[in-house]
Specification:
Shape: globular
Largest sheet: 6 strands, antiparallel
Helix content: 25-40%
Radius of gyration: 16 Å
Number of strands: 10
C-alpha cells in the first residue's frame, strides 16, 4: 500500500479524540497507549484493564486521563471473542493508540465526557512514518454493545498487507457477505512528540 492509497482508504485524514487533560502530556510525550502511560508512572497495566470509569494516573512524567471501557464491558454476557477473555481483550486495546477516519469517531466522542480535544493528522504522512505499526479494523474494536461483532487478533489487518487483504478479511471467514470499509485505525506503539508534530494537519 502506498501513502496515497492509505489516504484514500481512510478519507484523507485521521482523528484522535482524548480528554483535554491529556493535551499537556501529549505536547511533552506524544501519543501513548494506555498501558505505556501506566508503566511510565509505575502502574501495572493489569490494574487499569476493563475500567468502568475514567481513570487518572499520575507520576513524575505527568498526568494521564484514561477513558472508561464501558462499551466493552457491555459485552460481558455475549460470546464474541476468539482466543480472548474480556480482560485480555481490554489489555490488548490498552497497548494501542486509536484513530478514526473522517466521520467515524462520533460514537466514540459521544461516549466520553464533553471535555475532549481532537487531533487531526494527515493520513498520507501518517502512513509514510508509521506504516509498519498500523492496523485496520472494520469495527470499533473496543465496543461490544448491541450484538457485538465477532473479533479476535485476526480482526486487525496490518496496513502493509494491502487494501484487498483488509476488505476481504471478514468475508473470507464467512462473517460478512460484503467487503469491509475502515472504521478504526490503531498503532501498536507510542508516537513520540517529535514524530507526532509533523503529522498534524
Amino acid at each position: 500500500m502506498t501513502p496515497e492509497a492509505f489516504s484514500s482508504l481512510v478519507g484523507g485524514a485521521l482523528f484522535h479524540i482524548t480528554a483535554t487533560g491529556n493535551a499537556e502530556g501529549i505536547a511533552r510525550h506524544g501519543l501513548r497507549p494506555a498501558a505505556v502511560s501506566a508503566r511510565a508512572v509505575g502502574v501495572n497495566p493489569a490494574a487499569i484493564a476493563l475500567r468502568a470509569d475514567r481513570r487518572v494516573i499520575t507520576g513524575s512524567s505527568g498526568q494521564t486521563v484514561l477513558n472508561h471501557q464501558r462499551p466493552l464491558r457491555m459485552g460481558a454476557r455475549a460470546h464474541f471473542l476468539d482466543g480472548h477473555t474480556l480482560v485480555s481483550w481490554a489489555r490488548q486495546l490498552d497497548e494501542r493508540v486509536f484513530f478514526w477516519p473522517a466521520g467515524r469517531g462520533k460514537n466514540f466522542a459521544a461516549s466520553m465526557p464533553k471535555d475532549v480535544v481532537t487531533y487531526r493528522l494527515d493520513a498520507g504522512r501518517f502512513y509514510a512514518v508509521l506504516c509498519d505499526q498500523i492496523d485496520l479494523s472494520p469495527i470499533n474494536s473496543g465496543n461490544a454493545a448491541r450484538r457485538p461483532a465477532r473479533r479476535g487478533d485476526w480482526l486487525y489487518v496490518p496496513a502493509r498487507a494491502g487494501v484487498e487483504a483488509f476488505r476481504e478479511n471478514r468475508r473470507q471467514r464467512g462473517l460478512k457477505k460484503g467487503r469491509d470499509a475502515v472504521a478504526e485505525v490503531s498503532v501498536r506503539a507510542a508516537i513520540p512528540a517529535a514524530q507526532l508534530e509533523p503529522l498534524l494537519a
